[in-house]
Task: inverse folding
């Protein structure tokens, strides 16, 4: 595995690769890798000649400076995992290389309201930061395929919207959420949970699956939301949102008959850690 830290070196590697007619798969990450990331990496390795994985904790997508400071950074371990998986290039730039004119130079992208709800409402500016860094990375890597996880459903939807809207020549590939045996979605933030909290957090997926069942039984959206809030609150979770949304527009579904593709999305706090998860409750991506 080649480890590249400078943007210029990456540009040189990519142009040699393209000149040789090779395809590139790209997996952007912020490190602290787990099996969810490795699933994306493995799929990319199967589907492309070369796989590039970036590890970059992007400061512009953190609305809370404490969250940025405490974000797990495990580059040596990440590098070991990626090399073992068969990744061809690990790209791990410095902040100054990704934002040469400073963090204030981010572009404001019009995301047609998709960035204002759910995560966007609770983490102002988050998706502008995500879109800025993903666009910069796509410009550098020029991949044929971009791999993202369903766990960050809103992020995936926004990146898909950006790719379509700006005609970016890349195929977006979504990979299913990888879960712990108790259903907890794998996330770098899980490292901050105590063992007791990890067990407790299995409730999130149980509630999502129950809501999916209720959806099939035509229980009203407001009843399902009430059920979820009650189930979480009873176990001491603090719910930021629990929303059933249309999978494309991300607008709240008021009535089951309103959509062919609905997704239940939630963000909640447990033991001082913020977790998100989602489940497609009808239709498919
Ligand atoms: O999902 C993430 O880890 C990040 O938001 C991403 C896509 C790597 C951009 O920093």
Result:
């Amino acid at each position: 595995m080649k480890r590249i830290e400078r943007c210029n070196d990456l540009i040189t590697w990519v142009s040699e690769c393209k000149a040789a007619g090779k395809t590139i798969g790209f997996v952007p990450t912020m490190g602290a890798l787990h099996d969810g990331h490795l699933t994306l990496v493995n799929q990319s390795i199967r589907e492309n000649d070369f796989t590039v994985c970036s590890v970059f904790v992007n400061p512009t997508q953190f609305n809370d400076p404490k969250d940025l400071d405490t974000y797990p950074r495990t580059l040596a371990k990440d590098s070991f995992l990626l090399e073992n998986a068969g990744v061809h290039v690990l790209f791990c730039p410095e902040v100054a290389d990704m934002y040469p004119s400073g963090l204030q130079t981010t572009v404001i992208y019009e995301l047609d309201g998709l960035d204002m709800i759910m995560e966007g409402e609770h983490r102002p500016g988050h998706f502008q930061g995500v879109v800025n860094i993903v666009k910069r990375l796509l410009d550098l890597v020029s991949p044929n395929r971009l791999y993202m996880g369903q766990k960050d459903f809103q992020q995936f939807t926004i990146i898909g919207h950006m790719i379509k809207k700006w005609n970016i020549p890349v195929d977006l590939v979504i990979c299913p959420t990888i879960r712990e045996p108790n259903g907890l979605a794998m996330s770098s933030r899980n490292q901050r949970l105590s063992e007791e909290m990890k067990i407790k957090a299995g409730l999130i997926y149980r509630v999502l699956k129950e809501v999916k069942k209720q959806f099939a039984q035509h229980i009203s959206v407001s009843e399902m939301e009430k059920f979820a809030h009650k189930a979480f609150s009873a176990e001491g979770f603090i719910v930021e949102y629990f929303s059933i949304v249309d999978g494309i527009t991300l607008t709240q579904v008021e009535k089951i008959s309103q959509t062919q593709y609905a997704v239940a999305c939630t963000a909640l706090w447990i033991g001082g850690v913020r977790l998100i998860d989602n489940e497609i409750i009808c239709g498919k991506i």
